[in-house]
Write a structure and sequence with these properties.
It contains 1 helix and 32 strands. With about 425 residues, the protein is an all-beta fold. The protein is globular, with a radius of gyration of 20 Å.
Amino acid sequence: MRDDSTGRRTVLAALGTASSAALAGCSGVLDWGGSDDSDGGAGNGVGAPEQVDRLWTAGTTTEYAGNHHEMGAIRVDGEVVVAVPRSEDPDTEGCGLLALDAGGETRWRRDLPAEVCDPHAVGDVAVGELDGDPILLVATIEKDVVAYAAATGGVRFEAELVETVPYGHPVISPPLADGSRRVVVVDNLGHAVVANLDGSTAWRREFEGVVYPAPVVRDVDGDGAVEVVVATDAEQGWLVAHDAAGEERWRTAFETGGRALSSVERDGHPDLVLSTWGGQVAAVDGRSGETRWSELLAERGILGGSDGERLYAGAGDGVVHAIDPNDGTVVWTVDSIGSSAPANAPVVGHPREGAPVVASLAYDGALGLIDAETGSVLVEHSFGEETYTSPLFADLTGDGSDDLLVMFGDARVEAYRLSL
């Protein structure tokens, strides 16, 4: 880690200019030449290393060192199951989905044939439920979208729906008006597909350009019915809402395409919130498609998690903004990691009593833990290894406090107890 990191922890009055994001295969990953300035895993500056205490290491390493698709975690019968998407070098065994229990032991795994393995063999993991059972959803290079029973790895849904591995994870819809469910997926050729649970296609739309983030699938306009909202990326970006039958409800233009998309509650109905490749973070009224506010807050970065009170967006080099979703006001801005490497999307969890904690993790393994209420840096630490996914908060020990899961570039997963 760089020696000047302590000075860079100061809360910033304004964000400096950063270069535009460049795609390196997936929406969460920026081109980066690597780094040789890590300090081998020692803590740095704020917080002692014992504040980030390793509980376990799990999974075999892959030959491919750039695993960058996001993990998922869901509770099954009171215990957390962690799903790890593993990609590999071409024609190399070991790609597929690995499910770990809360102690890091393998619960089940589903490998793909070696001849289809490559750096995008398995996409981001989504979690949900089907008929009351926890499920894990992924798309694979075999063009399949699969829902696995989280408990056993049994297949609950499988259909060939995509042309390529999506940048965003599949989504299982809430019940529609008739009680039925749908599986919704987008791919990087601009396709949006809505499938029935028997695998048949309910409807399909083709957009100009690429679709990066997972769609939002929920009631966004307060009419009690489910909508499907897609963010596209062509010469300009579009946010497009459809009803459950696939009819377009509204569309809103942005200067550049969407990189991350989610929703938050405001005054009893949801807003869509997104970040674009141009660095804008915006809120869009789900009823009308009107842009309520838009601010340049994610240059060379990405919109991350929300705790209901604030949105958290990462800019270049580990700068994190806490944003009031009502009006786009920046509550605080802090550089928590002092790294020259790009950072993954910030996430928020509850590893202690009191205010939530925001975690920002850079590609070079630099970790910053931030008090979500004040913006003060609680811990600055380096794992000394490259990480291309956001960390994941989950209560692994059942003590009511979240632990932190980190997946490294070689698909190894480590769990940490945080003492804050």
